[in-house]
Design a protein that fits this description.
CATH class of the largest domain in chain A: Alpha Beta
CATH superfamily of the largest domain in chain A: MoaB/Mog-like domain
Shape of chain A: globular
Number of helices of chain A: 15
Largest sheet of chain A: 6 strands, mixed
Strand content of chain A: 25-35%
Radius of gyration of chain A: 26 Å
Strand order of the largest sheet of chain A: 2-1-3-8-7-6
Largest interface: A-B, 71 and 70 residues
Oligomer: homodimer
Helix content of chain A: 25-40%
Chain lengths: 407, 407
């Protein structure tokens, strides 16, 4: 099955927003065994959109569009699909009722312009959108499938997950399952080398991807049914775990803060942070989930040396040569632990340096973990922009914490 | 002049990376008076790329490509352009010399595969790339311009700024300048209503956009020269400032943390934070820039009520009905101010509630600013996901701080 993605909206052509819908959908297709050859962005112009749709209809079996389903005059995806297929838009009373109910729940009257969202063509079926006013469209005609989804990712993504995927999957022969294994602490090239003999495997396939929170390995198996596909992946995964076990922190949709959060919650442990290098980003990452409330006591962000001393770090450490050191990171962890009465304290410190290759920042950082009387330190360097290094250090701190909890 | 952008790379079609080059270039074109009608992403497949290039050559005057200029077999942009124009690739000794010098500076020998980066067609001219091995191509033929740039943004962006823009600008008649005015604290619909009579203005034009840190108004004027365009924008901008002055916090590339940072640095004031609702995100945002070091003393992140008390907030406030209140926000601001010895303290607190529309979070938050004896509080509600509300509250806190500093 050949697919094509079309993202619709003049704001994409003005560079005002970045199209994240196309990469989201593109990343979903390989696991379905669907080949994607074309992605394009087009403005809110009916003639141009119809042209793009016509070409897609000629060359692709599955067309996914996002955007242009809103209530304003600029929203022309419905009209363009009607023109493409030579069909007429007709009002659907059930859709209108749902829209009126949506507005009633908000305590507002429905503007008349929204009525166009309750129209449809005969070949299309509405896809419910609990997150907004724009229903999607599922069109099947002449062995083509065209699926039109709304542009806002918080409407499009649940529609894709809950409505489109479950209906699309049975139309594709066989079953494809994938498993993502997530690592931290090894460079991408080294991981690739370690798994090299497996990279050319045709089924299951193996892909290696560098992400902000480490390296992801994606295993994908294609088989007649789910059981068979699972049996293909299991030994493959075991082999990778054998080789890379110490570096693996999660699978599939796991995130580092969630993995660490589960370990803390399971053991009823609490956590406190003191951070200078990351300036609050470690605390912000840990507290992202509302589930962090029971275990996350708090964080001390030291923007200055005076702040470290005010928090209780021994001033002699700051005056001495150990200002940025593993010893300092551990002292920060201990102060956070005792000041906030937490079972575990983490301390993160470090500094940026210009690396050997000119104009490249090189962050050297130290992570200390104090868990009861157990003390653990780690240090590393990472190149890149300040924002990138800070994100990396946050992942490193969570990875070290996980190591301590899992040992 | 009609433009088209083509981003090349199979990783774009696998959803492994998000195309940020197209939005970067798209955002540059309106100011040049160039209309962009088409953006597409295509994989590393010569036949498909040539098809896309042929269509672009028919319908566009200016074609910008990124990607596919590397040294590997997958990099087929040069070959595809040669096929499009029916020309032959020939080695260029000067380019080869530059490449060898590039590798010599790195102390490495040049792999033979890189030789293809030193080939070119007669209609093309090489664009130097000081950040990498792939020179760009500037092609002019039959009143079309095709510019091929490398894919990595840190190579593409300087090439665009330093080599392509200066050469492209004189080829376009007239001048276009724009100005962005940034507001916070008013809903988009209300801003749009306030400026409604101006929204239909043809020159200068006015656009209204909702962003994570408020509402942006973009004024764009087209004229014979820069002075004239400036004279068209000035009275328009003055009018908007008259109507919206209190809500305006910046222009053009200003960011809220940078605007606040400048005000603090100018007055040699220092800042400390206590935050519960935002869990460290306010501190992380303030400390994002390395320039924050002199004025940002630090932040106290309270993940729990015990932490607030440990930091010095009166426990009676927590026990009382004012647990989440303006009074609490102010108390937090005062504790941060005194504990970290800062001229100014900010406190941020609040909680999530389920809003009227089901499953929609509604964050009610309180911001306190203590500046010497001057006390300032603000409160508001904002709907959306937890991540979205937290970002919004960070912007609100910085906006309130700016208000206090500017008054």
């Amino acid at each position: 099955m050949r697919a094509e993605i079309i993202s619709i909206g003049t704001e994409l052509l003005l560079g005002e927003i970045t199209d994240t819908n196309a990469p989201f959908l593109a990343a979903e297709l390989p696991a379905l065994g669907i080949d994607l050859y074309w992605i394009s962005q087009v403005g809110d112009n009916q003639a141009r959109l119809v042209k793009v749709l016509k070409r897609a209809w000629q060359r692709s079996d599955l067309i996914l569009t996002t955007g242009g389903l809103g209530p304003t005059e600029d929203d022309i995806t419905r009209e363009a699909i009607a023109e493409l297929l030579g069909e007429k838009l007709k009002p659907v009373p059930a859709l209108e009722r749902e829209l009126r109910e949506f507005f009633a729940r908000l305590g507002r009257e429905m503007p008349l312009t929204n009525l166009k969202q309750a129209t449809i063509i005969p070949s299309a079926e509405a896809i419910p959108n609990p997150s907004g006013t724009a229903p999607g469209w599922w069109v099947e005609k002449d062995s083509h499938i065209l699926i039109a989804m709304p542009g806002p990712p918080r409407e499009m993504q649940p529609m894709w997950q809950n409505r489109v995927l479950p209906r699309l999957r049975p139309q594709i022969g066989g079953v494809i399952i994938s498993r993502v294994i997530k690592l931290f602490g090894l460079p991408e090239a080294q991981v690739a080398e370690m798994v090299a003999p497996r990279l050319s495997s045709a089924n299951p396939t193996l892909g290696v991807y560098a992400k902000a929170d480490g390296i992801y390995l994606r295993l994908t198996a294609k088989a007649g049914d789910e059981k068979e596909a699972g049996e293909m992946i299991t030994p493959f995964e075991a082999e990778l775990r054998e080789a890379l076990g110490d570096y693996i922190w999660g699978v599939d949709s796991d995130t580092l803060p969630a993995v660490v959060g589960c370990l803390l919650a399971e053991r009823k442990l609490t956590l406190a942070v003191m951070e200078s290098y990351t300036g609050g980003l470690l605390s912000a990452t840990i507290s992202e989930s509302p589930e962090a409330a029971p275990y996350f006591k708090g964080g001390l962000v030291a923007g200055s040396d005076e702040a470290r001393v005010a928090y209780g770090v021994d001033y002699r450490l700051i005056a001495g040569s150990g200002r940025e050191s593993a010893q300092m990171a551990l002292a920060m962890a201990e102060v956070a632990q005792s000041r906030l009465g937490a079972a575990i304290g983490i301390g993160v410190t470090g500094e940026d340096e210009l690396g050997e290759a000119e104009r490249r920042l090189f962050g050297t950082f130290y992570i200390g973990v104090a868990y009861g009387k157990n003390k653990h330190v780690a240090t590393s360097s990472y190149p890149g922009s300040r924002a990138r290094v800070r994100r990396w250090v946050v992942a490193a701190a969570l990875f070290e914490l996980r190591k301590v909890l899992a040992s």
